[in-house]
Amino acid sequence: MSRRALSILAGAVLALVLAIVAVATMNLSPSGQSGGGSGTADIGGAFTLTGEDGTIVTEADFVGKPTAIFFGFTFCPDVCPTTLYELSGLIEALGPDADKLNYAFVSVDWQRDGPAELARYTSSFDDRIRGLAGTEEQIEAITKAYRVYYKKIPTDDGDYTIDHTASVYLMDGEGGFVGTLSYGEAHDSMLEKLKRLAASA
């Protein structure tokens, strides 16, 4: 192979390596985790929902504070009450720093969970957790934006339950995704994540 051909080949290989590095860098947050608030993970976005008091709530209402947001439903037999109970404990453990964060519970059960139902449900947990309801179209929009899985499952008694994503999403003060609290994750691990999130406020 001629020296010119070798030079061209070497240049092509270098360009390929630089492209791979660039793509890998775009898919890492500043902390080195997959995803992140710097446009690296397409999770989150605009939404319009209804709060427990009947007022319209949008993503703009959460800007300025980092947010922990969870998707579930009030008829959930185990994952939702367990998660909200644990989140309430974490809020208490944060002490004064807890007020540096927003906390939201979005119901994916648009047929049964309205503002009144959510208000009754969230009253069993920390009062800083805001219940948010929506129409079918609104819930479809926000779950698509947050890449939340949910699926209605018929039950033997003619009713239904809902399978859904069990993680709590952590968003920065500008609405960028920074990580999750996983279902069943150790308390200390979740608390440390929330402390870092509060410190970023």
Task: Explain what the structure shows.
The chain has 2 domains: about 1-30; about 35-200, Glutaredoxin, CATH 3.40.30. The protein is globular, with a radius of gyration of 21 Å. Helix 2 (about 80-95) packs across helix 5 (about 185-200). It has helices at about 5-25, 80-95, 115-120, 135-145, 185-200, and strands spanning about 50, 55-60, 65-70, 100-105, 130-135, 150-155, 160-165, 170, 175-180. Mean pLDDT is about 85; it is low at about 1-40. Strand 8 and strand 9 form a beta hairpin. The chain has about 200 residues and is of the alpha+beta class. The strands form 2 sheets. A 7-stranded mixed sheet has the order 2-1-5-4-3-8-9.
Helix and strand arrangement:
Elements: H1 3-26, E1 48-51, E2 56-58, E3 67-72, H2 79-94, E4 102-107, H3 115-122, E5 129-133, H4 136-145, E6 150-154, E7 160-164, E8 168-171, E9 177-181, H5 187-199
Parallel strand pairs: 3-4, 4-5
Antiparallel strand pairs: 1-2, 1-5, 3-8, 6-7, 8-9
Helix pairs in contact: 2-5
Shape: globular
Secondary-structure element order, N to C: HEEEHEHEHEEEEH
Radius of gyration: 21 Å
In percent, how much strand structure appears in the residues? 15-25%
**CATH homologous superfamily classification of the largest domain:** Glutaredoxin
CATH fold node name of the largest domain: Glutaredoxin
- How many extended strands? 9
Helix tally equals 5
Distance between the termini: 59 Å
